[in-house]
Amino acid sequence: MLADIFKKVQKIKSGISGARERLSAVRVEATSADGMVRVVASGDKQIVSIEAKPGLFSADPKGAQKLITQTCNEALKKAEAVLKDEFNKALGESGISLPGLF
Questions:
Q1: What's the CATH code of the domain at 6?
Q2: What is the pTM of this model?
Q3: CA 35, CA 92: separation in Å to the nearest integer?
Q4: Which parts of the chain sit beneath pLDDT 50?
């Protein structure tokens, strides 16, 4: 019984390690409603790039900052969804179901 638990733990560790590697390569993006800002994030919740159209800051610098922040948050929400899915998949492949963990 202890050996079975150890095997499952090893399988989980292996699955999570593989998931982390895949997540770092996944890219999600968010674009502001007006198309002025585009943010790319990785599946492991790192901002990869931020693109802003020319003139974004000229009219309303504080509004531009808010738009960038909102778009970054949207990209990170998408990355979080990918992360949860990937870790749930890794746990499921290990024969473990922990609803709500990720």
A1: 3.30.1310.10
A2: 0.75
A3: 38
A4: none
